[in-house]
Amino acid sequence: MRPAKLLATTLLAFTCLSLLLIWFHPPTSDFNPDNMFWNGSREFVRCFNARVLRSLGELPDEPDGLALVEVPYRPFEPWELEELTSFLRGGGTVLLMDDCGHGNQVLEELGLATRFARAPLLDPLFNYKNKWFPRVSSFSRRYLPEHVEAVVLNHATALVNTSDVHVLAWSSSFSFLDLDGDGFWGSGEPMGPLPVVACARVGDGLLVLVSDPSIIINSMLYIADNKELVSELASLKGANKVLFDASHLPRTSLDRAKEVLRQVRDLVASPYVAPAVVVIILAALMKPVWSRVRSHGA
Amino acid sequence: MRKLVAPASAGLLLALLVMSVCVASLPFTPHEDPAAAQETMEAFGILTFFSDVFRLACLERYGSARELLASLDEAYIPSDLRYIILRLANLTSELLDVLEEAETTLSEARALLDQMLLSEAKAKLERAGFPISKAAVLLDEIEDAVSALCSRLGMRSPADNSARARLAKLMQELRELLDRYKALLEELRNRASELESGGLSPTNLTLACNVTRAFVGSPVELTGLLTSPEGPLPGREVTLLMDGHPVGNATTGPGGSYRLVVRLSYIYVGSVSFSAIFAPKGEDVQRFLGSSSPTVTVKLLFFRTYVDASILGGPHPGLPIRVVGQVRAENHTSPGRRLVKLSIDGQLVAQGLCGLDGAFSFEIRLASNMRVGAHELVIAIEANRTFSGTSKKLVFQVSRIPVDVVVGNLGLVLTPSKVLVQGQASSRLGPVASAQVVVRIGDDVAYAETREDGGFVAELKVELGPFLVETGEVEVLVRPREPWLANGRASAGVVKLNVLNVGLLAISCLITGTILYPRLAPRREKPVERVERPGEAPLVPLVQPSELVGEELSPPRAEILKAYFSCVLLISERTGLIMEPHMTLREFLSLACSRERGLVKPFTGLTSLAERALYSPHEPSEQEVREALELSEAVRQVIT
Description:
The complex is a heterodimer.
Chain A: H1 3-24, H2 42-47, E1 51-53, E2 66-70, H3 78-89, E3 93-97, H4 103-110, E4 115-116, E5 121-122, E6 127-128, E7 130-136, E8 138-139, E9 151-152, E10 159-160, E11 166-170, E12 176-177, E13 195-202, E14 205-210, H5 226-234, E15 241-245, H6 253-269, H7 274-297
Parallel strand pairs in A: 1-15, 2-3, 2-15, 3-14
Antiparallel strand pairs in A: 4-10, 5-12, 6-7, 7-9, 8-11, 11-13, 13-14
Chain B: H1 2-21, H2 43-58, H3 62-70, H4 79-114, H5 118-153, H6 158-196, E1 204-205, E2 208-209, E3 213-215, E4 219-228, E5 231-232, E6 237-242, E7 245-251, E8 257-263, E9 271-278, E10 291-292, E11 296-301, E12 305-312, E13 320-329, E14 339-344, E15 347-353, E16 359-365, E17 373-381, E18 390-398, E19 404-407, E20 411-415, E21 417-427, E22 430-431, E23 436-441, E24 444-449, E25 455-462, E26 469-479, E27 488-498, H7 499-520, H8 526-532, H9 540-552, H10 555-575, H11 585-595, H12 600-615, H13 622-639
Parallel strand pairs in B: 3-11, 20-27
Antiparallel strand pairs in B: 1-4, 2-4, 4-5, 4-8, 6-7, 6-9, 9-10, 9-11, 12-13, 13-16, 14-15, 14-17, 17-18, 19-21, 21-22, 21-25, 23-24, 23-26, 26-27
Helix pairs in contact in B: 2-3, 2-4, 2-6, 3-4, 4-5, 4-6, 5-6, 8-10, 9-10, 10-12, 10-13, 11-12, 12-13
């Protein structure tokens, strides 16, 4: 075999192998709805039968009865904020679950004073294993039923300036906001109880703020009453269908490659492109036979 | 070049793998794996907790301190520290108990001394000494436990040290509190001694009740006598207590006797106790000691009330339930018209009087947004004079009525097309009307509404898919408007046949057939034609090489090859097989044998000899030449 031909064959084989590896390698990014590992949210999607949105442009026109779970780890475009606001004002429920992401961008857009503190909420006493997992057991019984007894957060923050929202849950009085990030309480750092879940009416809809999105990851969903809390929050306004926005989740290079492949697959699988591809493949397969017949005829 | 390809490929693959598993770097840690998280506890949290408990104790808010201490059950405590911390919590709990006991006893002793009840006060003061001593011991043990805990946890931050210092300060305040209790005890003891040595006359107070048992609400007469060693004490005020609470005052008459009529409360317990105390006032303070009477117990009589109740009908959101029951009284006494209160999950939902026979029946419409699951219904009967009250709890399950959905069989669906999905929705209450129907086949969705008879027809536009044939399910979801009905679901198998792909497949088959037909089908006819025209041009060049080769070869080789090629020519004429220029002898053998099975043995042998003649450096023997001629003859016999 000539070197050029060998190189071409090797490259082709390598490309095919790479594509197969990318296609079949399980996703590993945080909150990814297809990620079955500890940091994914496949269990949440399965458990709540949630519909995964790849873009906020896919939001239904009739938001009544729908609850959108939003983990804003990537910034919003202006049109996305408009879509979100329109969904809320139209009667939908939005669970904005953030700690250090871009949740405040949404709150700013909605004109609310409440903010995600973006500093770690630590609880050195009432926790699960260590202070980074604060245990929350103080709830507003006006909104949340008795069977939600305790919730465990994971690298959470707290809500501040909560004058224009109804607070639904507070951390313990031993928790504190670690403003300087040294892991220890220092004078001037706010001590608990601190609001961690709140809600506010926006138009006909309901905005629910949760200061930790990690309660929905596979390894946290079934700890304490995390699942029950999410379920109750989603149905606060009677929503019976959960949507999960995957377009603002953190992405790895693997995710990006998978996304490109998925787009190519969708393009090829479309009814208008598929026949053309079939014809091209057919023509390529038939070429040797065709040339043989032609030479034989000659 | 080849050597470079393998390492380059391996390197690229490795790079791809590394790149694929690399997590996008966020500027913060969004979470960590709880299963792999390390168990740690910091001094700051636990020391702050105990500081808060001790602060409440210093304020003598022992109840609040005990509540806070109980919340330690919810704290996460690593197993290696569990014993120390729980022991510390137990010691603290004991300390709170003894401090509260000391505080209560001292307060009571002070009150008794204020009433000049010397003997009772002395008994209290004797009891107060023990908890104070025990509290001092407990405080020492707690300090030891705190030191041990701090050494195990380690003081790693200024916050830890400040929490430790705060705890030490609060423990010092607790010691000061204990000192105050000790000082108070000493002061009260001195007061008691002064009273005892003051030459005051002791007094004696008796108490009697006119009945030993009485109905609740009925009056009872309490009488008694107040005396001193000098004789009866007239004109003194005696306070009467029922279960420790004052119910009235009586003034002694000329003979020192007193009388008070008290109406028994409507409390439905077994008995009440009465006592009387005399606390000297005015000039008597300088002359007499106080006294208390023995306790008199009166058994309370009343009719116990019972209630039986049940829920009729299935509890469903938005639908009424009927609660029926019967109020009964002890000894078959008629209970009369009693007030019945019904509450669900703590909310009063109905109330009214039962019948004279005690029967009651209430219809309660459940809220349309009532949660599905277990709820608690409490039927409370209010007490009425001599009839006690009672209550009964019933736990009932609220559920939604299932909706049955039947969908017509679709079988095969051609895509793209419009499909009519028909079905029927009903529940045990009848057809489900005006319900929303959602029909889905894959990503194609259609909506409809059920008619009055529960039937529905949804027109679903099924779009083209990428596959020729797809199996799937038609899923139907019926969402009733009535809150008491559950969502109904049904599904049926469906096969989608893509018309476009069928067309493409047909065209592909047509093209393939068109291309292959001239090559395969007509050749079966050719052998006959070739036999009739043996001198046809294409066959001549095929034998020419053998002749050419034969001229250059030695006679034995040429003989064998001549015999071989004569057979090839014959086979070509008879079967229509052509020995192409690129064919090997074995390829032709394979073709010939596949066409005529009888050739296998002789032609294989002949081909083998021809190959040796062509390619072997050894000269063929005479024997091999003869063998070739014999095999050639055998081939001729088979083929002709």
